[in-house]
Write a structure and sequence with these properties.
By secondary structure, the chain is α/β, with parallel strands linked by helices. The protein has a single domain, classed as Thiamin diphosphate (ThDP)-binding fold, Pyr/PP domains (Rossmann fold). Helices cover 36% and strands 12% of the residues. The protein is built from ten helices and seven strands. The strands form two sheets. Strands 1-2-3-7-6 form a five-stranded parallel β-sheet, with helices on both faces. Strands 4-5 form a two-stranded antiparallel sheet. α5 packs parallel to α6. It starts with 8 loop residues before the first helix and ends with a helix.
Length: 272
């Protein structure tokens, strides 16, 4: 299924932002800043006529595959999946609590997640293998891999990048949540990527860049990518802000491991 284009993606983005804050308020062990930077990416994928999926049969063969490599940064996916009937919405009240299926780091026990999301840096390799397998089977289904920019410091990603280009996997779409902050600070202070687009292009990838907090711009670029079949894997560099929308958290160098005070979250939820 696709979600119809009658959905207002900006309204849905705001709703997911609020729900993500509320989840963190109840489960402060979740990674809030990483999840706030990727909301528009997931809203565009799941509500913007990009992904083919069936929430009543999450592993149906005819689905597109969405590999969420930055698992800890996808708590914002929980309200999306609940809203789309992958699991009861009551599960959102039980994140990280006994009896619930939703943890601080997602895994495939959650309907809608394809892979285990523990150590970073493996999702692109998995997605590349899936894309190759679908190609060999003659499937027209697409693979989307969502990574953070920090995890691209892991060398295994660049092996996958070279492999995908050599094998002309134009059913593979990489989305980089380029918030420029990893656990230990700004990514450029640790290992600078320079221009990710230039580097990926040098490896034979077709690259796009976008304001990652303009959900309609993200949707538009993803639609272009999905429709392009010229023998090149594709990448979208989404420029985002870690901790988007939360004062004191947004774009702070240590936002990855920071928790806003409960009173601040309460004030934001009341105001917004």
């Amino acid at each position: 299924m696709f979600v119809t284009d009658s959905i207002n993606l900006r309204d849905k983005t705001h709703w997911v932002w609020r729900e993500t804050l509320a989840i963190h308020r109840r489960a402060p062990e979740t990674r809030l800043a990483s999840s706030l930077s990727s909301i528009e990416i997931f809203v565009a994928l799941y509500y913007g006529d990009i992904l083919r999926f069936d929430s009543s049969n999450p592993l149906i063969e005819t689905r597109d595959r969405c590999i969420i490599s930055k698992g800890h940064g996808s708590i914002c996916m929980y309200p999306i999946l609940a809203d789309l009937d992958y699991f009861p919405i009551e599960e959102l009240q039980k994140v990280c609590h006994t009896g619930g299926i939703l943890g601080g780091i997602p895994d495939p026990v959650i309907p809608g997640y394809e892979t285990i999301n523990g150590s970073l840096g493996h999702g692109l390799g998995v997605g590349t293998g899936v894309a190759l397998g679908l190609n060999r089977k003659g499937s027209d289904r697409s693979v989307f891999v969502v990574t953070g920019d920090g995890e691209l410091h892991e060398g295994a990603n660049w092996e996958a990048i070279m492999f995908a280009s050599q094998h002309k996997l134009d059913n593979l779409n990489l989305i980089v949540d380029n918030n420029q902050i990893s656990m230990l600070g700004y990514t450029d202070d640790i290992v600078s990527h320079g221009s990710l687009s230039a580097r990926l292009s040098a490896f034979g990838w077709q690259c796009h860049e976008v304001d990652g907090h303009d959900v309609y711009a993200v949707q538009g670029e993803l639609l272009k990518m999905k429709d392009s079949h010229n023998g090149n894997p594709k990448a979208l560099i989404a420029r985002t802000l870690k901790g988007h929308g939360v004062p004191g958290l947004e774009n702070a160098p240590l936002s990855h491991i920071m928790n806003p005070k409960p009173e601040l979250i309460d004030a934001l939820l009341e105001k917004n």
